[in-house]
Amino acid sequence: MRIKYLVFSGLISIVSLMMLLLTFQISLTAVEAAQLENSNDGWIDQFDSPTLDSRWEWIREDPTHWSLTERPGFLRITTQDGLPTDNTAENILLTNPTLENYKITTKVDFSPTENVQNALPIIYQDYDNFFMLRRRYANGDEVSILHRFGEGVNYVTSTLSSAETYLRITKYGDRHIGSYSLDGNTWIDMGQFNARFTDPKVGLMTYQYAPTSTIPAEIPADFDYFQLSEVGTTLYVAPDGKCGEASPCYATIQEAVDTAESFDTIKVAAGTYDDLNVRPRDDITTTGQVSQVVYLTKSVFLQGGYSSMDWSTPNPQANPTTLDAQGQGRVIYIAGDINPSIQGFTVTGGDAAGLGGDRIEGTMSVGGGIYIWKSLARLENNIIQDNSAESGGGIFVDGPDWGSPDDPGAIIMGNDIISNTATAWGGGIHISASAASVVRNVIRDNTADFGGGVHEWLSSPQLEQNLIINNTASQGGGILFHWGDPTLTNNVIADNHAESHWQAFGTGLHNDGANLTMSHNTIARNTSSNDQGSGFYIVDDLVWGQPTINMTNTILVDQPLGIFANGVSTLTVNGVLWYNTPVTITTSPTAVLSVNNEYWGDPLFADDGYHLTAGSAAIDKGVDAGVTVDIDGEPRPSDTGFDLGADELELWITVYLPMITNK
User: Fold this and answer.
1) Do 195 and 343 lie in a common domain?
2) Are residues 358 and 443 in the same domain?
3) Domain carrying residue 577
4) Helices H, strands E: what count in the chain?
5) Which of 375, 465, 478, 572 has the fewest CB within 10 Å, making it most exposed?
6) How far is the C-alpha of 471 from the C-alpha of 445, rounded, in Å?
7) pTM, whole model, 2 decimals?
8) What is the CATH number of the domain that holds 205?
9) Same domain? 326 vs 225
10) Residues 6+ apart with CB under 8 A from 249
11) Model confidence band, residue 636 (pLDDT cutoffs 50, 70, 90)
């Protein structure tokens, strides 16, 4: 509640003034005043005007159920039947957030007494994708988070018995956090979930619904204010601590990280940062120490690629920002229930020798370039090059749970993961007990014993739109899957090499017991030391079971043996192009095989080895696998049918207009 100012004419006694003031509730605390401070990028609507600010827009407005005048100084939205999940909820009030990372805060006076009456702030993309923090009644007073993303739903609740409640949603990267407070000072975090919304809006709403035949009464929710504010502050780093006019300025990234609070942004200028920091170990054990250039145990946004003369727009190509461990430890260590973002750096010179960190193998040293433990970190647009470990030479990622398909996971997006080495698993990336998203990366020239480019262990990663090329291993030159439920969509797995001792080992992909869902992948020109290796090798596992693989719309060309299905495994192929593959599929007597829509012919790749050109035998031969874009993000299909493989040939149509002459 804000102070309502009174202007008196004439004389008035102190007693009369005190009596008049008692008729008003003056409850502005220092905390609330601080909350309502305007920032350069934020926005506050205190609902003092009798008309709604022009920045707002309604979805399904019902003007009979909202008012700015029934209780002056508040926005009143009265509940009515309808659900946000089926497009029947009315009076959803939204505005554009305008900020990349932000928090939305409101104070609501709401006294629900029946199932299920709700008042809430919301981040809203559409009725299938939103994050809401609800003050409501559901067999009792409570605050609850409802996070919906397509068919998935996350839900968490907390008991509450207060009419006046502060509600806040914090958005930082892909993480969304719901918090509430009874005094505007002490905040209680309800829960946090990853959500990749597309152009969402933010705002307020109420609704109710009848889980039984009893229809709840319509009641008002009075919103005192709505505040959109920037998350965190900005710190600056430049070599020798010379940041121009920017402040506060630090000479090392670790100094800035140590000073920063959660959700702060740290902008880093071009240069090489090679200072090594020794810190307490905090992963599978808290005993001992770890060495690295950057030690992260808080959610901050690290962005490289700035010039110390221009902090407005990062350009990592023009302003290379290098983190170099010089072989003396890891480059970046990320641990805990945090969601940091790392963008625009070259990560090199990492060596995890003696640092441990693998909860499955115990003493194995993992994550030479970047080590991620239990965190929902986001790695984007980095170069991760020339790092080493026993496993995960470039990146090691371990999930917050045990890697089931419904678990949240780290995001590894748009990186170049190049020339990293692992003596055991995963030269480029080792994914352990994680549902990480690995999207639009170039993973090339990495080396390992198992899984030259990528090794997955007991995980359910989503691999989408990656180039996995020129990697080397004894098994799984490109990828080795070890149990779990991975998904592969629009990937190119090409020109990888396996040092096979006989034909069974996968030169491109090796699958040991994992259930795979594969759509629109190109598997091409993968080789072995004896020229007999299979492009894709499948085998069951005595401990973790018998794999089921569904492979749809695949190009599988230029390998001596296309697929070898061994052991007790089930392989379903629907839509495949073979070319220059003398033996297409070999199965053991115990394997179950189903193949439909097979084609033979030249894919006619462009010079890059995977884009299709006109006349390709892959054009319009696919089935509808529910994939709407290709490896480049271009629409799929572009013609009357779906193309096989990772690329959808872009259709160019020449239209000849009739000649018009003047008479």
Assistant:
1) no
2) yes
3) 298-596
4) 3, 57
5) 572
6) 5
7) 0.81
8) 2.60.120.200
9) no
10) 236, 237, 238, 241, 242, 243
11) very high
